[in-house]
Every structure is written in C-alpha cells, then in structure tokens.
Structure to design on (431 residues):
C-alpha cells in the first residue's frame, strides 16, 4: 500500500528547509541522494521502498533515485534549490503506473527547479565552485551498526573524491535537532497513526478469543492496519506467555495458551510518521492474581513516569527515575528486598535483570528516531514511555507503552484514550 504523499502540506516542507538554512554557515551546500530500491532476491526489491527520512522531511518526496542540491545563498536564486528527477518513461508507465510528473514534484516539494538526473554532475560542478562547506547526509543513528557500505556512504565517498578540497560537515546532527521539534502538521499525522493503532487494538480485543495462534493475531493486526491506510511501523511483536520475556520476539509462530498473557507491541506508520504501542492482554479474558499484580506494578510506573516527564529533563535522567520506580515495584512483587531501595548500586543489578531496556525512545519519521539523550528535552519532542517487568522464571512479561508529546510544562499522553486499565481490557475481551 502506497502512501499518498500529496497529503503532506508543502508549506510544512518549505518551512523545514527554512529551519535547516538557519543552521548553515554562508557558502554551504547540502547534497542529498535517495538510493534506488535495495535488491532482495532474484529480480525483487525490498518492498515497500524506504525513502531516506531526511530527504522526505526536506522535500516531501519518497521517490527513489532523486538528487537534491540546497545552496541557500547561491547568487542565482533559481539555483538555490534543485531537484534532479526523471519522469517515468512510457514503458515504466505501462508497467508501474503514471508516477509523478515534474510539475507534481514541484508542487509537493515547493522546489521550483526540477532537472533531469543526467544534469546533476554538471550543475553540481557550478555550485561547488561557489560553495565552501558541504553537508553530507549519513545514517548516524546511535543504534545502527554501519558494518557495510550503505548507499549513503558510497555516495558521500564519491562526492568527497570528486571534490577533495572542500570542507565537509555532518547533516545528521542538524536534522536530529530539527526533527526532534515536531511541527503541527506532523503532529496531525502522528495522531492519525495513533487513531489507527487504537482502532486496530479495540477490534483485536473483541475478536481475540477466536485466535488460536500468535500468527493469526499478527495477520489480523497487519491486515487491519493496511485496510485503515497505514503500514506496520515495524514487524509486530505478538508474544504469548513466556515469549513475552524475549524483548524483540518476532517469531510469532506459537499456539496461544488460555492461561497466558499475550504481549502485543505494534506500531502504525501513517505517511511515514509512526506510533509504537504495547499492550498486554489475558488470552482467557481474566488476569490471574499474579498476572494482575505484575501488570498493575508496571502500569503504576508508567503513570508515575508520565507525571515526572517534563521539558528540561534528559532521557538519561528519566531512565534513572524509571529504574528507581521499577525497584519499588519489584519490592511489591517480592522480587527484591526492601533494604536495597536506598542505594542504586544495590538495586540496579536486580532492576536490570527484570527491566533490561530503556524506559523509552524518540520516535517520529523513524520508530527509533535519533535524538539527544544527554540534552534536556524540549517542547515538541515525541517519545515513547514503555516500562516493563519480565519474570522469566514465571513466564510473565509485561510492558506497557504509550507515546508522549513533550509540552511547555510536562507531557501529553497521545494514547490516553486507548484502553490500558486491566478492567477495561477484560471487559473488551469478554464483550
Ligand atoms: Mn517502543
């Protein structure tokens, strides 16, 4: 299912470029390239195509094999922003459809100058003679392991070889800064992604007793998301019982046991903006006492974190608070001695055993959006809040994840109206 990118207002895209230009020193050029689709096997490609999110943010386009040159103070106004794009050939139109005309590319991006890709290197030569600083777009996501030559690195290397005497700069830190302040237009798309998430979850709850396997649940989630105009933000985690203690369990191929909890961690991508939610549901429709206790302990931590989270705090500081709150929960669950609560050195090893991940992450055009963990959160930041407790020896894993928007004074829970209280969940399953 292809997104209709024309829904993204071009004023938002134009403003993103204007915000970027404020960070560029005079005589800067930003050079961008959206790679061709990555091959998978035989004549297939990974599908759907994943456009570079920075290029999407700056041009509104999700088209493969386009080049973009941005040189905001170039003396000739018509050459300050250029897109290099080839309209589909007649043959491509027969096989793949109309695609975009150059005129549509102009309208979507707000960039008036659209040339063919064959003109890229000649045009670049002119602009490079004027430019001193070259900003290159590389995937610098902290969680990414750059173990092989991705197309962004190959392209960057090629530019550096062609122009070895220029001064090279990183685009990634500026983009992380810009993207961490969510704008109104994108908040609307985020809310849309969350609305779809809610619909899928409610529908799933009322049908859940019909499902015998994790795979059936995965199929339901995926089908429902697509039918509502979204895509899976990532492969859904559908983990029954003990499988829920495997943090990124995506096998999704076991039977569901009636006495188990089912952990569902899925997200919706809408026009490339993502939601990410985790809920835990008793397969039978009733929590056992122990399951409920663990569930309530995690829910309490999530509620306390939502009270705690506000601008000015760093993600690292919030993590410390989350670990402390989990420590109290572990005492309540008889998993840790009360005496250890006074000293993080005492409780942290045990907390890490039962809660071995971060309380949350930045999210946006990427599910794990790059953000600044050690810098204070600012209004407009969009993060997840997902405390969890995993007791492997009891086959119980509970994680509860909502998506928050940082405001001037605190945070808004964008998933506030998606059922999370255990009674609500039970009622829906039994309805
Ligand atoms: Mn998450």
């Amino acid at each position: 299912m292809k997104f209709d990118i024309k829904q993204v207002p071009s004023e938002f895209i134009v403003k993103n470029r204007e915000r970027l230009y404020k960070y560029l020193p005079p005589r800067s050029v930003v050079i961008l390239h959206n790679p061709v689709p990555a091959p998978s096997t035989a004549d297939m490609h990974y599908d759907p195509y994943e456009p570079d999110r920075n290029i999407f943010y700056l041009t509104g386009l999700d088209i493969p094999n386009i080049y973009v040159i941005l040189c905001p103070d170039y003396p000739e106004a018509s050459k300050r922003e250029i897109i290099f794009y080839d309209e589909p050939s007649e043959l491509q139109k027969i096989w793949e459809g109309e695609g975009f005309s150059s005129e549509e590319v102009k309208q979507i991006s707000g960039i008036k100058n659209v040339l063919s890709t064959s003109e890229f290197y000649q045009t670049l030569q002119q602009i490079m003679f004027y430019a001193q600083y070259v900003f290159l777009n590389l995937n610098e996501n902290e969680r990414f392991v750059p173990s092989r030559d991705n197309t962004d690195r190959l392209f960057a290397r090629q530019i550096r070889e062609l122009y070895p005497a220029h001064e090279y700069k990183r685009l990634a830190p500026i983009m992380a800064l810009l993207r961490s302040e969510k704008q109104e237009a994108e908040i609307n798309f985020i809310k849309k992604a969350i609305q779809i998430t809610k619909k899928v979850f409610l529908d799933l709850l009322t049908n859940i007793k019909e499902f015998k396997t994790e795979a059936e649940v995965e199929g339901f989630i995926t089908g429902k998301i697509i039918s509502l105009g979204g895509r899976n933000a990532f492969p859904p985690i559908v983990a029954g019982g003990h499988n829920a203690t495997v943090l990124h369990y995506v096998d999704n191929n076991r039977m569901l046991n009636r006495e188990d909890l089912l952990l569902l961690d899925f997200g919706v991508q809408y026009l490339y903006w993502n939601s990410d939610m985790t809920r835990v549901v008793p397969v039978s429709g009733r929590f056992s006492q122990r399951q409920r206790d663990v569930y309530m302990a995690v829910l309490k931590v999530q509620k306390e974190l939502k009270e705690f989270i506000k601008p000015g705090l760093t993600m690292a500081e919030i993590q410390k608070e989350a670990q402390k709150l989990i420590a109290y929960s572990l005492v309540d669950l008889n998993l840790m001695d009360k005496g250890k609560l006074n000293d993080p050195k005492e409780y942290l090893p045990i907390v890490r055993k039962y809660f071995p991940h971060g309380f949350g992450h930045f999210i946006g055009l990427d599910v794990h959006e790059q953000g600044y963990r050690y810098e204070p959160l600012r209004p407009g930041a969009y993060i997840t809040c997902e405390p969890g407790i995993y007791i492997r020896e009891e086959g119980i894993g509970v994680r509860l994840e909502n998506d928050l928007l940082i405001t001037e004074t605190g945070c808004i829970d964008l998933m506030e109206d998606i059922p999370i209280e255990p009674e609500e969940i039970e009622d829906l399953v039994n309805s």
Residues 190-430 form a domain with the Creatine Amidinohydrolase fold (CATH 3.90.230.10). Residues 357 and 388 are 8 Å apart (CA to CA).
